Amino acid sequence: MAIGARITSWTTGRRWPWVVAAAGLLLTLPSLWGGLVLDDHFNRMVITQPEVYADALPGPLDTYNFFGNDPERNRQIIDRGLVPWWTDANLSLGFWRPITSLTQWLDYKVWPNPVWAMHLHSVLWYAAVVFAATMMFRRFMGVTVAAGLAALMFAVDESHGVPVGFLANRNSVIACLFSVLALIAHDRWRRDKQGAMAFIGTLMFALALLSAEAGAAALAYLAAYALCFDHGVWHKRLTSLTPYLVVLIAWRIAWAAMGYGVSESILYTDPLSEPLTYLTWVWREAPLMIDGQFLLPGPELLVVAWAVWPGSWWLIAALAGVIAMAIWPMVRTDRTARFFAIGTLLSLIPACATLPQNRNLMFVGIGACALLGLWLTQYMPRLSWRCTAKLAGGCLVVLHLIIAPLLMLGMARYPMGPQPQPNPVEHPPGLDALAGRDLFIVNHPAPMVMYHTLGQRAAEGRPTPAHARVFSHAWAPVTVERLGPKELRVRCETGLPDVFSYVIADKLDHLPVGDSLALTGVTLTVADTDDTGLPTELRCAFDRPLEDESSVWLCWRNGGFEPFTPPAVGQSVELPAMGLPFGLSAEAIDAHLREVLANR
To answer: Are the CB atoms for 197 and 225 separated by under 8 Å?
Structure first.
């Protein structure tokens, strides 16, 4: 049998959905050794409700409510030291994802110790997504090689490794499954005239929204369906979306009424409360997401290129334009291609509500993989520029069927990148001796990680400090001057907050010169700012001598945390900027990232 005939036999066979689901499962199995990273520790802390932080935590089934709309709770979080002192108490960073939270709660109730079992749970969800997507491709594209190839590319897409390997990102996988099921049910309602499927489709859409806000992307494909497959006048086509819109509006009203939402953070934007800002984000980020999906360099890498060379955005946009021109003739003549193209473009809109990241491409990938399958099997062979088309097709096959699955193995195992063990950033030494004592860290490479460090220790029942204080980041030199027995001055010319604190503060200028923050054991007063209002100097007035035995001091120096001895009264000490490999300057990178984020 010829190779082409074999491929046709495999991809159109009855077992193909199971084969593709098995491929997705096998490629994500390395995640079983991935352990817990970043927000996983916060999720576990919320579920286990350790007594030491009980007053600063939401309920055990509210695992994505990082900061609520309650300033008093936020102040407790700041006072305990789970987040840096410069965090705005008015910050809101909470998401209503009860379905996903329930699956996480079950993890810790059924198999609380073997983390690999929790990862296997996520892997099985992903296998279900791949199986459902394969059936969906067959419904819309027929039992064809194009549908089979689309399913395979979706299953081995390297961008899916992160939401599978990162337990806290399971919400995207679950929302995608319910979204695909909603689309299948909608097609059975509209095409097969099965009225009960209208209810099933609406229910699946509701479950998608209750799994993650990204579930709203299902509406992108539902709208594309009304435009491309439904018959009749426009207003009658659009009425098929009414039940989904009712669910979306009800969900959004409930979401806001319960206090969920995002504000004062540059990591997310709300399209309803900040529509103009949101449209700007879509304009800037959509090309990065398109290139990342079709051409494989993750959006994160494209963001880095954009940061290093701002003019690269135009090259990125041009590449997105080339992709659009390549598929346009097919989209113009084939309504199935048109459906997937519109769904892909519309699903970019909710994906751009946060920073461009590989893990946000799952919904975009549904339409993109279908378009690639159609282009490679049905359109490319008919092109007049056959040599160039074959070269392009060969490159796409290599990217999506050879390189992508190899990358997926690594991303599933290391969703946040390889981490040293033990990680000196996340695990400062000597914390076991800190029970009931206060921890003061002069400079920290990643102050936001304290949330995860302390959360991990609390959830494991290990000693935690009574309070933790991080005064500055370590990306630039920090000067510490002793003003008195109980008083310090801390200064960093590039600003005391680190660049990644833009996650928790849209503008880090809410504490002007002279403003004070009274925390347990210390009062912090902003003594100076730069021309943007960013705090650069801090006066710290303690309620006891700095050498008191109840205090433990650390600083970041020589690539790790070291004990720090406060200087004598009238003396000062300068801590150098953290070192980076390859001769890179942490201070220069910090300054450049600030500029990029400020322009976002």
So the answer is: no
The pLDDT > 70 percentage for the chain reads 91
Q: What percent of the chain has pLDDT over 90?
A: 54
pTM over 0.90: yes
Find the distance separating the first CA and the last CA of the chain, reported in whole Å: 56
Count CA within 13 A, CB hemisphere, residue 534: 23
Q: Are strands 487-491 and 478-484 parallel, antiparallel or unpaired?
A: antiparallel
304 compared with 569, residue with greater pLDDT: 569
* Residues ≥6 apart with Cβ < 8 Å to 144: 11, 12, 377
| Mean of the per-residue pLDDT values of the chain | 88
- Using an 8 Å Cβ cutoff, are 400 and 372 in contact? yes
Task: Give the model's pLDDT for residue 134.
Answer: 98
Q: 14 near 112, Cβ under 8 Å?
A: no
Range name among 26-40, 48-62, 67-81 with the lowest pLDDT average: 67-81
Look at the alpha carbons of 204, 211, 73, 432 in this order and tell me if their dihedral is positive or negative: positive
What is the token pair recorded at 203?
């229910």
Task: Supply the DSSP symbol for 504.
Answer: T
CA distances to 32, 283, 292, 294, 312 from 326, in Å: 39, 21, 16, 12, 21
Cα(369)–Cα(461) distance, integer angstroms: 45
Closest CA to 166 of 364, 347, 30, 47: 30
Strand 535-542, strand 487-491: pairing: antiparallel
